[in-house]
Amino acid sequence: MMKWREDCIRCLLDARIYDAFKGGATDKELQLILSSTVGSMQFPKSKAFRYSWKVLKEVLGDIYVFERRKLLERTLSKKLDVPQTLEDALRLAAMGNLHDTAVGGSYRPGTKELGKLITIGTDVLWNGGRMIYAVDNLPEVPYDVLAAKFFETLGWEVTMVAREESYEIDATYADLVELVQLLDKDGSIRVEKLPGSCTIFDRCEEAKELRENNDIVLAKGLLNADAYIDFMPPEPSLLVFAAKCQPLAEAVGAEIGDAVAVLGEILLKAFRG
Predict the structure, then answer these.
(1) Contact, 103 vs 248, CB < 8 A?
(2) Residue 88 to residue 166: CA distance in whole angstroms
(3) Secondary structure (3-state) at 261
(4) Measured distance CA(254)–CA(246) in Å, rounded
């Protein structure tokens, strides 16, 4: 397992402290949440974030259940059009990823506007084939559906996937089904479920089968990027996110707030130095 970086430890603790106070934790509840968060560092980073969230949810309940829907309604109130170029599709997908909770001690919801678009290895998207599109935060899923519709024009058959369990403001499988039915007018996008908190890059059988039966994985957000680095799957993968934490931003020469679309193997090599 990769050694924890100082920035990543601060990010993990900051996220759960932010969540705990947002959920009105008592001192005793806060102690339990923080001790479990520190204990979660025995796991790979992406799993530590999921485990510590699960403990917090058991203590305080799903503190973002209403906020997720409120942020989604804000997105759905906007004019939503299918992008016309690959650059626009990637920018749109990354723009939605600015929606988030606390990240890294400095990033807070609504504090950043989207910066420049950084693309590394995205030529693979011109190939066409079968694509798994793993979503992230709920309020950005409408943008993801529009991006997926553009990828179809490049010859991709798109299957969108989400986890079964809730995590922070991420979309669940039930959320994804609802939005694809609402926004995919011709019904061409398929939807699949990842069990529990399994990411598309975990070693669970369902994720492995989806990766092996498709030509590329396009995965959104920091949790999926961390999971790729943690588990190093062999299948071709493109990671799309808004740069919100310093280690991932520095790995691709981005600044906080920039939009990033990078081939997984390139990010892995850069991040591990």
Answers:
(1) no
(2) 29
(3) strand
(4) 9
Give the three-class secondary structure for 132. Answer: strand
Please provide the distance, in angstroms rounded to a whole number, between the alpha carbons at the two ends of the chain: 15
Phi, psi (degrees; rounded to nearest 5) at 78: -90, 160
Token pair for 216: 């590329």
- The alpha helices in the chain, defined as continuous H runs, are 6-22, 27-39, 45-60, 65-76, 86-96, 141-153, 173-183, 205-212, 221-231, 246-251, 264-271
The model carries a pTM of 0.95
197, two tokens: 């908190």
In the predicted model, is pLDDT for residue 29 greater than 80? Answer: yes
Structural tokens at position 86: 């690959």
Task: Report the C-alpha gap between 241 and 223 in whole angstroms.
Answer: 10
- Judging by DSSP bridges, how do beta strands 117-120 and 129-134 pair with one another? unpaired
pLDDT in tens, 103-142: 665 655 555 677 899 999 999 999 999 999 999 999 999 9
Secondary structure of 39-60 as H, E, C letters: HHHHCCHHHHHHHHHHHHHHHH
